Records
---
Amino acid sequence: MAERSARGFSGRALIIEDDAVIALDLQEMLGRRGFGPVEIAYTAEAAERCAAQTYSVAIVDIKLASGTSIVAARLLQNNGTPV
């Protein structure tokens, strides 16, 4: 689970989102809440590569232009990342 810091939360965050405007907006919001670094995966392939790492939290868009992120979401959950 994400730890609280003076600014809100802390730790690495992952955003899986194929819409750049939405992804960058979420990245900014998470950064303001204290998360960092906040990584973005725009494709299903990138999401699966990122999902092998550990994050404090992940925000996941399941239906991507390049396919789905279901496999990545399951990997993240299996690693203990709140999705």
---
Amino acid sequence: MNKIFSIFIYVLIGLMGGIVFPPFNKMILLSLVCGGIYFSYLLYGIVRSKSARGAFLFSWGLGFLSYIISFSWLVQPFEFVGASAVAPLVVVFFDLCWSVFFGIVGLFTFYIKREKQYLGFAILFTLIEWVKSWIFTGFPWNPVALVWSNNLAMMQSVSVIGTYGLGFITISFLCLPYLFFERGKTIFKSLQFYCVMCLTVVSLSFGYWRIGKYKTFEPLGKSVKLVNRNVVQQDKYDISNIDEYIKFSKIGADTDIVIWSETAVPVDLFRDEYSLMKLMNFVGDNKTLITGFDRVEFLSARNFKLYNVMAIIDYVGILDFYDKRHLVPFGEYIPFKKLIPFQKMVEGMIDFSSGEREVIFDIGGLKIYPVICYEAIFSGLKLPQEVDFIVNISNDKWFAGIGKVQHFDIVKFRAVEEGVPVVRVANDGISAVISPLGSLIKSIDGREFLNESGIVDVELVKRISRPFFSKTGNLLVVFLLICGVIWSFCSFKPFDFTKKNKKY
């Protein structure tokens, strides 16, 4: 009976780990309570494990259970391509594979000297989060710092220490219940306790100071129109979409820039002169269009490359374009294609190719940094001071409701890290203009803009001074994390897969 109850608690707390992230963190207290229980229980289970193998399996299983909730949206892309029958199995397999990183944290934490396991766990977990941002091309979805995506004050610390720096503070804070349970009244004699409390209070205080400093933003003197038609996947390449988008774009006031979503144009504008002329006539000589489409580059009669493109168009034609550089594994290309018998989830059998050049659009002196869909989840863009704002176009039709909110909330962290506004247009997602502090300036039908069409006109604001993190990126934080790992293991025991750590 006790074993059944223990398994029930294990599963229940594991599922709680998924409630830490959006959209559940709108109730921040619930999210923090669940996060505190989850991470403290995770660390407690690692410390109490009888072997390294047990610590690995305990962590791996708990990570898998949290992913069942937070990655549940991954089922939807398979349903769109008619693979709904196997979707749950594929997603479960992905969750099992990706939660191995949890197991790695548990394995190495087991060997840290007992008095250092509390901070050592937080350091290792954060470092592994960074590793997940680049290994196998990277998938840094739902970093722990995302807990604070609805708390503007705590978000401001990423302007200095980035998403992973805030992630370390967050994990340390959420593991405080473990420290209380483990040390009791002696916790108030613990230097680690005071360090974590100090970091949390300083981060929160800095956030309120920064919000007060930028109570208002200077107007940029330019306006944008965000256009979302909620095009369903099977109609994505319907040529009539161009006329529908143009019709939508004429609603409301005239703006300097009109922005459509990723692949809003169903043809290659470099090869379809008629469609390009339509768009040139639409924008006229008083505005500019930013939109997405697929570009084909022929290398020979039978050999070509396919690119996911964002382009700027005015009355003379395509002024500049950007080829997406960071592609979605299994969505836009198949990694290790010769070894994996798997088809990608988007239309067609041909893989997309990665762009090779970084581009900063220039529209009459206005500097715009293009980011397409998936690229917005990566921390450390290190944008120069000359960039006025980021444009992020996406097709969030691939995501279920949870995924759409998570995608949008991750993008808010890029605004704070770089100190620039973000203009985001996402088909069937949340389309909005985000301030340099991560707050909403204006959106289409608010945060709940899902499964709807709409347009909104927004006056842009100027960027703020370049934050410290924008200059350094993740380099400093990763260096400090590596130093932290060295500190954690400076007196660890030889690897022994059978014996349990002795209680200090």
---
Amino acid sequence: MGGRVMKIRLNMIEEIMKFINGCCSKFTGKIFAEQSNQKINAKSVLGLYSLDLSKPILVRIDTDDKNEENKFYEFVKQWKVDGE
């Protein structure tokens, strides 16, 4: 993954749905989640459930709009994890 990324963890169904709903309703850019060798559309419920959600995932937004990019990382920081 190139560019800015954030490591997050989505532990509960409610968090997953809040993340997906926020990504779909607030952001027009493409949002990706990556774990190991998998890279998926993070706006996809099935895509997220294909990952091992007991482990952290890397997320990023692909947009030319710096304001949208900043808002995205502000939104996802509620699930941010450090280390691991």
